[in-house]
Write a structure and sequence with these properties.
By secondary structure, this protein is α/β, with parallel strands linked by helices. Helices cover about 30% and strands about 30% of the residues. The strands form two sheets. The protein has a six-stranded mixed sheet, sandwiched between helices.
Length: about 190
């Protein structure tokens, strides 16, 4: 599947939105990818996960982990295709944590899977939790990289199958804020 065909999945699902959005990083953008609308269709999740797993060797990993909530569906599907256990981290009172009785064997090699990365904040928090629990996160896979110009987001290799260079702004320099356009927060840390 080509990158354009994968991006077409987002467009067909109405998941490539235009407007004024607050991203999970707190930055603002005129475009937003709502992966949940794409991944709600199992065939899309299967196809996108298949593209991700083409880039790795399953034998290099013991488990798959994702930061909740955006990475859950694609992480579960990647784990299914690799036949590996799947766990996730989640925020409680604003802090990324490992909960629900999940554990990681000391030194276990984990593949970190996310739907969309921009600043990579959720993924970095997930990596830190994995390390805190004795795991060895070795690779990050994400469906979409929304800010490919941002180098050095992770201290481990990462790969995405869709690159969409979307300009983001801090609140002080956001042209949509200056125009008085109301921002909505559609992501997992917002109300959408």
């Amino acid at each position: 599947m080509t990158e354009q065909e994968m991006l077409q999945m987002y467009e067909d699902a109405g998941a490539l939105l235009n407007g004024h959005f607050v991203l999970s990083s707190g930055r603002h953008s005129a475009r937003y990818l709502q992966s949940a609308l794409v991944l709600m269709h199992p065939s899309n999740a299967t196809a996108l996960a298949a593209e991700l797993v083409k880039t790795i060797d399953a034998d290099d990993y013991d488990m798959v982990v994702s930061p909740a909530i955006g990475g859950l569906v694609i992480g579960q599907e990647v784990a299914r295709q690799l036949n590996k256990p799947f766990i996730f981290t989640e925020r409680k009172e604003g802090e990324m944590q490992m909960r629900r009785g999940f554990s990681i064997s000391d030194g276990a090699k984990l593949l970190v899977v996310e739907d969309v990365i921009t600043t990579g904040g959720s993924v970095r928090e997930c990596i830190a939790v994995v390390r805190e629990f004795g795991g060895n996160p070795t690779t990050v896979l994400a469906v979409v990289d929304r800010a490919p110009q941002q180098q050095g987001r992770f201290d481990i290799p990462h790969h995405t199958v869709i690159t969409l260079d979307v300009e983001t702004f801090d609140t002080d320099s956001c042209p949509m804020c200056k125009q008085g356009t109301a921002a909505i927060k559609p992501g997992s840390r917002g109300n959408g």
